[in-house]
Amino acid sequence: MTAPLRLGINIDHVATVRNARGGAVPDPVRAALMAEAAGADGITAHLREDRRHIRDADMTAIKAAISVPLNFEMAATAEMQKIALLTRPNAVCLVPERREERTTEGGLNVADDDNRLANYIAPFKDAGTRVSLFIGPEERQVAAAAKIGADIIELHCGTYCDLHDEGRFDERDAELARLTSMAKHAHALGIEVHAGHGLSFDNVGPIAALPEVVELNIGHFLIGEAIFTGLDAAIKEMRRVMDEART
After folding, report:
1. Which of 13, 36, 46, 97 is catalytic?
2. Is residue 1 part of a domain?
3. CB-based contacts of 168, cutoff 8 Å, min separation 6
4. What is the mean pLDDT of residues 76-87?
């Protein structure tokens, strides 16, 4: 039987809009609570080193307010480790981060940094916090994630989504095949499989249909769609599209 598919909502870009003008609105905590009420299975927030959207106080307030799990996205730095251990989220998701990028541009290179990352995640494992690694669909990265004891991988769907949106369907299908293969490989190794980055109503179906994937994390598209339809309606439509693809 295929496992149920969870939906995590990333609320970073509510904070982006707030920070564009300053002040307190729109409030990412309010967005998190609205997402939960609309059926989100979890809330994701990325505390970047430059604090371009989510801020330290947001993480504390979100954790205190929500009833669903908090997924704390972060770079693998000493500063972020300290904050996350104090926040005690359900999971941390380690992502690569460059100050000059607009959004996360690729997956974490676990294979070439496995010794450091193994030591880095040890305090989270000791604290009972699940560890997720955001990686591209590459066998060596999946193998390295398993080697260091990650609980979860989140497959980077950005290339697949870009190729779909650009109408480069042969290349898109090849990337989907890589995602499919690596989801199966990770599942066989006992790693929980999530997916995210760039997913929309138009391209989510084939990813949602992968039986090994148990959670999708979606943010920017849904926050943008909420401008036109409201957050509740956007989340419920995404849930409908996901569930339709799953069945």
Report:
1. 46
2. no
3. none
4. 97
